[in-house]
């Protein structure tokens, strides 16, 4: 093969490799609602750009990060930054945020009372048992006027940081996915919105107290550092935060999911 032919061959090969790297398949892990549904919404827009989106749904908050760290996923959408930070303290997987997408407001729900002030002394309240969402739940209870936390604990709060509990509330710490089912057995439960929506609970309509729109717990699209500049991933980030995605979120969830863009 001549030098000229070799150069042409190498040039064609380089173009082929570049094209395959910039327009291919993205494997994204997500909880079913709202992340999975939002990803399905943007799938056609990505297909028009030559990107095949493969969505893998999870029912917990651990395996989506494990799969991303092990390389069987290219990205995930289910968590907020405080959760990711807490997760990687014990299991560093080099996962980084790509883009803020939406806020699913944390809500306090009850089948026994219709307002916070109706909770009786000694009532049992179920909260998430993972550190970041447990702290988030306690901060919500503090804003509701039910407890007071040690000054400065913030996103590191746990039940031992409660310094005032005038109603003598008792706390039951459960896996986040179990909290909707716990409502039959406790006086109230703090439920993440993705799990609330799965059982027909709407934080705007059904929660007796919920987070405001300025919450720091916005859900993020995340990936590993080595994939951060993947052009296909950037196309996904743009699609998830497009005007069309914003309009869809507001219409689909009636304000219970707040766009963060």
TrEMBL record:
**Signal peptide residues on this chain, from the entry's feature table:** 1-23
Tell me which UniProt keywords the record has, alphabetically.
Lipoprotein, Membrane, Palmitate, Plasmid, Signal
| Keyword Signal listed | yes
Q: Which InterPro entries match?
A: Lipoprotein_NlpA (IPR004872)
State the PANTHER family in the record. Answer: D-METHIONINE-BINDING LIPOPROTEIN METQ, METHIONINE-BINDING LIPOPROTEIN METQ
Report the family membership: Belongs to the NlpA lipoprotein family.
Name it. Answer: Outer membrane protein
């Amino acid at each position: 093969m001549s030098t000229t032919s070799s150069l042409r061959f190498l040039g064609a090969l380089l173009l082929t490799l570049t094209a395959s790297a910039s327009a291919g398949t993205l494997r994204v892990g997500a909880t079913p609602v709202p992340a999975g549904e939002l990803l399905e919404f943007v799938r056609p827009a990505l297909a028009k750009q030559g990107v095949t989106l493969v969505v893998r749904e999870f029912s917990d908050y651990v395996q989506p990060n494990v799969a991303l760290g092990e390389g069987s996923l290219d990205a995930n959408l289910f968590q907020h930054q405080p959760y990711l930070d807490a997760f990687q303290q014990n299991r560093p997987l080099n996962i980084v945020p790509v883009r803020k997408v939406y806020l699913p407001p944390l809500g306090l729900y009850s089948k026994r009372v219709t307002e916070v002030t109706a909770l009786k002394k000694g009532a049992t309240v179920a909260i998430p048992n993972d550190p970041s969402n447990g702290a988030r739940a306690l901060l919500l209870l503090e804003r509701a006027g039910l407890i007071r936390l040690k000054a400065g604990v913030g996103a590191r709060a746990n039940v031992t940081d409660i310094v005032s509990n005038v109603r003598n509330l008792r706390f039951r710490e459960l896996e986040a996915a179990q909290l909707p089912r716990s409502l039959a057995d406790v006086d109230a439960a703090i439920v993440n919105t993705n799990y609330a929506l799965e059982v027909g609970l709407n934080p705007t309509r059904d929660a007796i107290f919920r987070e405001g729109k300025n919450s720091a717990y916005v859900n993020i699209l995340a990936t590993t550092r080595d994939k951060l500049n993947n052009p296909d991933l950037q196309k996904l980030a743009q699609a998830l935060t497009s005007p069309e995605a914003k309009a869809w979120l507001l219409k689909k969830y009636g304000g219970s999911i707040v766009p963060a863009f």
